[in-house]
Amino acid sequence: MRFLLLVATILAGSASAQEATDTGSGAMLRGLDKLTGRAGDIEIRSGGMAQFGRIEVSMSECRYPEGDPASDAFAFLTVREAGKAEPVFRGWMVASSPALNAMDHQRYDVWVLRCTTS
Predict the structure, then answer these.
(1) What does the alpha-carbon distance between residue 62 and residue 46 come to, in Å, rounded to a whole number?
(2) Assessment of whether the complete model's pTM goes beyond 0.70
(3) Strand pairing of 89-94 and 74-81?
(4) DSSP reduced 3-state for 11
(5) Cβ neighbours of 2 (radius 10 Å)
(6) What is the mean predicted confidence (pLDDT) over 54-67?
(7) For the segment 68-118, what is each residue's pLDDT rounded down to a tens digit?
(8) CA-to-CA distance for 63 and 20, rounded, in angstroms?
(9) How much of the chain is in helix, strand and coil states, percent to nearest 5?
(10) CA proximity to 105, closest of 27, 41, 34, 39
(11) DSSP class of 28
(12) CA distance 81 to 66
């Protein structure tokens, strides 16, 4: 019983604590073509789109801890394969935990490196 009370207290405390964030003007992503082994950096502006191989990456927003743009970034991305309407990924990606909400594609990987501010 004490264990359940302790867990409930910890969860309640962590849910109420939110880190203040700033919004970047864009993001630096990294793409990997698993078939060819080619990796490359993808710079994208907020609201913009970039192509890497046969995928198109759109980014709505990139956020980072207040006052520290080199720190843990998280970006809202939509990734589509060329010629297909349904996205292969749509959601938040976190730089420090790329596996937390990873894109599941047989050929390509994309992950967030950092937000850009200029």
Answers:
(1) 7
(2) yes
(3) antiparallel
(4) helix
(5) 6
(6) 94
(7) 877 789 999 999 998 898 999 999 999 988 777 778 899 999 999 999 988
(8) 10
(9) 15, 45, 40
(10) 34
(11) E
(12) 34
How big is the CA angle at 16 (ends 4 and 99), to the nearest 5 degrees? 80
Phi-psi region of 91 (alpha: psi -120 to 50; beta: other; left: phi over 0): left
Kindly calculate the radius of gyration of the chain based on its CA atoms and give it in whole angstroms: 17
Q: Which residue has the tokens 């959601």?
A: 91
Q: Which two tokens stand for residue 41?
A: 């950096």
Bridge partners (DSSP) of residue 71 are none
* 80: its two tokens: 């589509």
Which residues of the chain form beta strands (DSSP E)? 21-23, 26-33, 39-45, 49-52, 55-65, 74-81, 89-94, 108-116
Minimal CA–CA distance to 96: which of 109, 107, 112?
Answer: 112
3 state SS of 82: coil
φ, ψ of residue 94 to 5 degrees: the values are -110, 130
